[in-house]
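Renewal narrative, Specific Aim 1. Our central claim is that a sequence can be written position by position from structural information alone. The example that follows is taken directly from our test logs and has not been curated for this report. It begins with the structure tokens describing the chain, in the order in which they were read.
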């Protein structure tokens, strides 16, 4: 099997195209002494609380400098002012959406079915119990959908990995 030299040259150029690759800084939320960490790059969504002034800022990271980050091209926050980073927990978030998307349509479909068939009562008590339980479970899971990581350098700390030259 013969290889065309021009094809090999083009493939080599694609593989070794270092001129287009760009390094960027990475924001790391890590737990000291363990291997547990979360990394944030440019265009990642973040929600955090600052200590000075005491506000909550959320949005997309537009720039990561050596000692600060810029959120939505407006809010520049230094690492020293970050008091808490709030992360979404995908498992509880999924359960909440599942319970809501199962409970409300089940109630609506059963109600429409009862109206069409002229049932008495229009909504059976079993349907109210099942759909009400699903909706109540979604409401109960709501506080568990996010987790606060206090960045006090004891449990969690924030660092910026600087890859620029």
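The sequence written for that structure reads:
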């Amino acid at each position: 099997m013969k290889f065309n030299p021009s094809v090999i040259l083009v493939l080599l150029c694609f593989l070794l195209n270092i001129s287009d690759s760009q390094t960027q800084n990475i924001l790391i939320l890590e737990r000291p002494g363990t291997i547990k960490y979360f990394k944030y790059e440019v265009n990642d969504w973040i929600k955090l609380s600052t200590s000075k002034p005491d506000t909550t800022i959320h949005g997309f990271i537009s720039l990561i400098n050596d000692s600060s980050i810029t959120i939505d091209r407006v809010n520049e926050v230094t690492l020293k002012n970050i008091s808490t980073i709030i992360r979404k927990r995908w498992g509880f978030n999924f359960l909440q959406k599942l319970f809501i998307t199962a409970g409300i349509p089940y109630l609506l479909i059963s109600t429409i079915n009862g109206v069409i068939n002229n049932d008495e009562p229009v909504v059976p008590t079993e349907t109210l119990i099942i759909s009400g339980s699903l909706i109540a479970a979604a409401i109960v899971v709501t506080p568990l959908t996010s987790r606060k990581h206090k960045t006090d350098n004891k449990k969690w700390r924030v660092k910026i990995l600087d890859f620029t030259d």
